Amino acid sequence: MQSSTAGAPACAMLVDRAVLEVAGKDRRAFLQGLVSNDVNKVGRDRAVHAALLTAQGKYLHDFFIVELGDALFLDVEASRVAELKRRLLLYRLRASVDITDASERFVVCVLFGERALSALELPPDPGAATAIDSGIAYVDPRLAALGARFLLPHAAASALAMMDCNESDAAAYDRLRLSLGIADGSRDLVVDKAILLEAGFDELNGIDWQKGCYVGQELTARTKYRGLVKKRLMPVAIHGPLPAPGAPIMLGAREVGEMRSGRDGIGLALLRLDAVDECLAKGEPLTTGDARLVPHKPEWVNF
C-alpha cells in the first residue's frame, strides 16, 4: 500500500473475519427463511446485514450478505465460522444448497475515513454496492459512517494497494466502531442471550419488519411492538483501567449493566436505560472496578 497521504481514507485487512459461500438453486429461499433481514434485497448493487437467532429470538450469529456470480457470500466471525456452517447445515434438509468455507479464496477489507465512500464513487447509502476486481465493495449496511467493506478474491486484494488510501490496521477500525456505538458480533452480544433490539439492529438496518417469517421473528416483533427494550448497548468513555468484558457496572450501590468490548479509553456497555437517564441527569458517573464510565448516546440511536 502507499505511504501516508494527507486526507486519504484508511484501509485495513480484517483477519478476524471469514467467508461462507451459500450456493445452489435454493440459496436465496433457504436464507430468507432463517435470517432477520430480507435476502431478496441482496444483489450486485446491494448488500445487507442480518442475524441468525434461536427460536426464542436470542442472538446466535450476525453477518453481511453479498452476491457474487451465482452464489451468496456471508462475511462472518472467523472464530465462529465452523459453528455457523454446522448450524446452517442442520436447517438445509432437502433444500438444494451447498455451504462451504470460502475463507481461503476471499479476504475481507475495510476502507474508512471522511473520503472513503467518495473514493469508491459510492453514495452514503447503507448497503449500496459496486463490483471491484472480481469482488464487491459496499457501504457498511449498518451505518455509512463506518465506511466501506470489501469482499475480494485473494488474487485481487492488491487492488487496495492501487487506491489512494493510508495503510491502517484493525485496531484503528475498531476504535471507529466503538466511538459510533456499533456491536462487533459475539464480542458484544452474548450468544443465546442477547436481544437484537438492545444492540440497535432496528436502527442499523439489520431487521426487515415486512418480510415473512424467519427463526425468532415472533419474539423479535413482540419485543418491538410491546416496547420491552429496557437495556441498550451504548458507547462509554472509560476513565481508568479497561474493564474486562462482562464486568458489572454500578451506579452507586446498584448494578445497572455489564461491560462489553473496549480499547484505548472507549468501550461498549449494556446499560439499563433508566440508569443512563439518572446518570446523565445527576452527573454521577457509572463505575466498574477502578474505572469511571461516562455513557453517551450516538446520533443514530432512537430510544
- Pick out the low-confidence regions: none
Please give the domain count. Answer: 2
User: What is the CATH domain class of the largest domain?
Assistant: Alpha Beta
Strand order of the largest sheet: 8-9-10-7-1-11
Order of helices and strands: EEHEEEHEEHEEEEHHEEEEHEE
Descriptive terms for the model:
303 residues; alpha+beta; Gyrase A, domain 2; Elongation Factor Tu (Ef-tu), domain 3; six-stranded mixed β-sheet; six-stranded antiparallel β-sheet; 6 helices
List the helices and strands and how they pair.
Layout: E1 10-13, E2 17-23, H1 27-32, E3 48-53, E4 59-68, E5 71-77, H2 81-92, E6 98-101, E7 106-112, H3 116-119, E8 129-132, E9 135-139, E10 148-153, E11 166-167, H4 170-180, H5 217-225, E12 231-239, E13 248-251, E14 254-263, E15 266-272, H6 273-282, E16 286-288, E17 291-295
